[in-house]
């Protein structure tokens, strides 16, 4: 696996006073909400909750590592709002399971969280998905606020209302659409991420350029170092990603059409995650990076785009330090037939037919349904034997 960033050091923080914030609106009628983006935006969470739900109390579902690092900042931002309980969740994808969901819901009921109260998801995508799903089913629906603390969550999973857990059959197969009432993306919290975690989130930023914004992708090719370093470029990348997702969610909230484009790289990627046991052998953003390369490679083999498009994506992701090939995954993978079976469990399968997000070029992604399974199997067999 490429490794161009020192794993032992935290990412450098932004220069004091160098940042300005942005607000992105997700337009869903009477369920519309804001995404607050910027360093120090967590300080506004209490006033925003008071404006949205005067007198509401909060329950916090927090990643245990995040709570240790940033719990005091959240408490300060909440000010005088009553916190009914704080439920700690172990970090890692394994927390997105039935057992942990039952524990979280039980803790919220023990704390007597009511429908007029608010659940806060304080952590990365795992906690956001788990806490959001718990809020969706608690008393048939309790409002919740997303406070994403990873780059991946800030640009993707915290926006759009997808919540859920994993099962032995695959990733995110049990869940609900439940929109937050507010997203607070404090970019200062990203300074404590490891380089690996930050790179994984960056893969989702690249995705937005590859779907329909080739100008954004070209900007990332030239400015990714500034995005990693922090400052205005980081806020620009996050806000651009959030605006792109907000537009798609507003047009297709429940993924019946255009929203499926946001799954570029995910059909292959989710199968790779399942094949590695949802472990730290391959984190989600790394799986998406490999999945996007596979999606463009498959598109090129089908004659839909040029092989040079895949090469360009590989160059950029490799420069950043992300894996781009199946053989970059430590510990190996099962064969093509097993991966095809895992792809068959994907939520985008319809009546047994395979659905993929493919591309006619960078920034020209589209959804193709009824992809022949034998073509996918043969393609994977070739890619799995690459040196």
TrEMBL record:
Which keywords does UniProt give here? Amino-acid biosynthesis, Aromatic amino acid biosynthesis, Cobalt, Cytoplasm, Lyase, Metal-binding, NAD, Nucleotide-binding, Zinc
Listed GO CC annotations: cytoplasm
> Where is Zn(2+) annotated to bind?
204, 266, 284
Q: Report the locations given in the UniProt record.
A: Cytoplasm
Provide the GO MF annotations for this entry: 3-dehydroquinate synthase activity; metal ion binding; nucleotide binding
**Homology family:** Belongs to the sugar phosphate cyclases superfamily. Dehydroquinate synthase family.
Function of this protein?
Catalyzes the conversion of 3-deoxy-D-arabino-heptulosonate 7-phosphate (DAHP) to dehydroquinate (DHQ).
Question: What's this protein's name?
Answer: 3-dehydroquinate synthase
> From which organism does this entry originate?
Tepidamorphus gemmatus
């Amino acid at each position: 696996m490429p490794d161009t960033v020192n794993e032992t050091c935290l990412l450098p923080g932004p220069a004091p006073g160098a940042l300005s914030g942005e607000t992105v609106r997700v337009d869903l009628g009477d369920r519309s909400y804001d995404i607050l983006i910027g360093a120090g935006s967590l300080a506004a969470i209490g006033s925003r909750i008071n404006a949205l739900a005067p007198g509401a109390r909060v329950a916090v579902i927090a990643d245990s590592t995040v709570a240790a690092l940033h719990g005091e900042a959240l408490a300060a931002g909440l000010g005088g709002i009553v916190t009914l309980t704080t439920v700690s969740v172990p970090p890692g994808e394994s927390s997105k399971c039935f057992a942990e969901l039952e524990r979280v819901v039980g803790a919220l009921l023990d704390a007597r969280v009511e429908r007029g109260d608010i659940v806060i998801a304080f952590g990365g995508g795992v906690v956001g998905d788990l806490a959001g799903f718990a809020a969706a089913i608690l008393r048939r629906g309790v409002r919740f606020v997303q406070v994403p603390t990873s780059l991946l969550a800030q640009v993707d999973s915290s926006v759009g209302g997808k919540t859920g857990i994993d099962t032995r059959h695959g990733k995110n197969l049990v869940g609900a659409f439940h929109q937050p009432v507010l997203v607070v993306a404090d970019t200062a919290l990203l300074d404590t991420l490891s380089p690996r975690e930050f790179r994984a989130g960056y893969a989702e930023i690249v995705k937005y350029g590859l779907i329909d914004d080739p100008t954004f992708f070209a900007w990332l090719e030239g400015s990714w170092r500034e995005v990693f370093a922090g400052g205005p470029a980081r806020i620009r990348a996050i806000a651009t990603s959030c605006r792109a997702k907000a537009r798609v969610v507003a047009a297709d909230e429940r993924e019946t059409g255009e929203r499926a484009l946001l799954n570029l790289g995910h059909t292959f990627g989710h199968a790779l995650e399942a094949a590695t046991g949802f472990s730290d052998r391959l984190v989600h953003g790394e799986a998406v990076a490999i999945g996007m390369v596979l999606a463009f490679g498959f598109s090129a083999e089908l004659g839909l785009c040029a092989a040079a498009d895949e090469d360009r994506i590989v160059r950029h992701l490799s420069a950043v330090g992300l894996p781009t090939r199946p053989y970059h995954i430590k510990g190996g993978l099962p064969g093509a037939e097993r991966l095809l079976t895992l792809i068959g469990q994907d939520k985008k399968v319809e009546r047994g037919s395979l659905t993929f997000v493919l591309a006619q070029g960078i920034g020209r992604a589209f959804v193709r349904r009824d992809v022949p399974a034998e073509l996918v199997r043969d393609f994977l067999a070739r890619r799995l034997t690459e040196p």
